[in-house]
Design a protein that fits this description.
alpha+beta, 30% helix, Nuclear Transport Factor 2, Chain: A, 6 strands
């Protein structure tokens, strides 16, 4: 593996951690920098959300994630495209209702202008096996 490949993977892992921290804290400014303007999120129920809708939900605290506990993380980088696959336990409120979920995320990232940004994300519910 080339050294620049190792550096890109490390930078992608760091970007994923910063994204999780921004979601947890509701940091709309950090989310704005980490999400591409064309980003689309597909939720476990099949609904989709644009970047602006996502930022709006965090800004208004309609979506508030207090716990984002990463359990697994795999990273793949091919040229300027990155994929993060993670399993996480989340707790918070959505639309005024508390939630607790175990989700598997797949995020597609693009590397441009020296940074990683999410272009697409999908989450699926994972049943608790315990």
């Amino acid at each position: 593996m080339r050294m620049d490949q190792v550096a890109l993977e490390a930078a992608l892992r760091d970007a994923e951690q910063r994204l999780q921290a921004a979601v947890r804290s509701g940091d709309v400014r950090a989310l704005d920098l980490l999400l591409d303007d064309r980003a689309v999120y597909t939720g476990p129920d099949g609904s989709t959300m644009t970047k602006e809708e996502d930022l709006g939900a965090h800004r208004s605290r309609t979506l508030a994630v207090e716990v984002f506990n990463q359990q697994e993380l795999d990273v793949t980088v091919v040229d300027a495209t990155g994929i993060t696959r993670l399993l996480a336990g989340l707790e918070g409120t959505a639309g005024g209702h508390p939630f607790k979920a175990r989700l598997r995320y797949t995020r597609t990232w693009i590397h441009a202008d020296g940074s990683w940004r999410v272009l697409a994300a999908h989450a699926s519910a994972v049943p608790d096996l315990g």
